[in-house]
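ok posting inputs for the adenosine-5'-triphosphate job
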Amino acid sequence: MNVLEAEGLHTFYGKSHILHGIGLTVGEGEIVTLLGRNGAGKTTTMRTLMGLTPARSGSIRMLGRDTTGWPPYRVAALGVGFVPEGRRVFANLTVEENLRVPLERSGPFTVDRVYQLFPRLQERRTSRGRQLSGGEQEMLSIARALLLNPKLLMLDEPSQGLAPLIVRQVFETVVAMRKEGISILLVEQNVRAAVEIADRAYVLEDGHVAYEGRAAEFAQDEERVRALAGASA
Ligand code: ATP
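and the output
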């Protein structure tokens, strides 16, 4: 069963036509990665799926419902979590306060459970958001999304700007979340790390799907990986 099925999404920012008929699926229990160069439309795709920047045409089904045209709060209440790019933690609130902000949907993830998963956050409970390292802020953003007990979690570049060791921890967390039964859509610039943990990959180019396939197959296409990963690879 698919937890996400999107077809023919066309999204605009004003007059700029950004998504040109994107279609993608995420199966139950899958990790699917969405790759592409800067400006390819990855963030816009996630914003469209969440209802933050609604599509002008196309259809979206998530968790068995037709969510086309739904506002973000309804999509979230259905069980779709979103961790936006740039870790929007509340700088002046403590870690604990940040975790108490979201509406908790009932399910296995409670604040205590989240502290078990992220012991570092418990140690930093009384620290303010702005005092955390980039890695700690990312963990806090993910922890906050988990309190919604999502069935489907969308993560926008969680490894951005993090040191390699911390990147590894973030990716381990993503794998751990899948073990908890959460399906994942992962936008990443870190191509090699993303295809290592993903089941399937999509590559966006100029608002189109340019490639779709098994992540393991994509990982072996050295030329494609290098082209996407750029100079950093
Ligand atoms: P990045 O890795 O840089 O975030 P991306 O693949 O996520 O890239 P998007 O952020 O979805 O790409 O951007 C797709 C296109 O939409 C880009 O050309 C960008 O300049 C444009 N764009 C993004 N946000 C807006 C906006 N609010 N208004 C107008 N154009 C925008």
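notes: The two ends are 35 Å apart (CA to CA). The chain has a mean pLDDT of 91.
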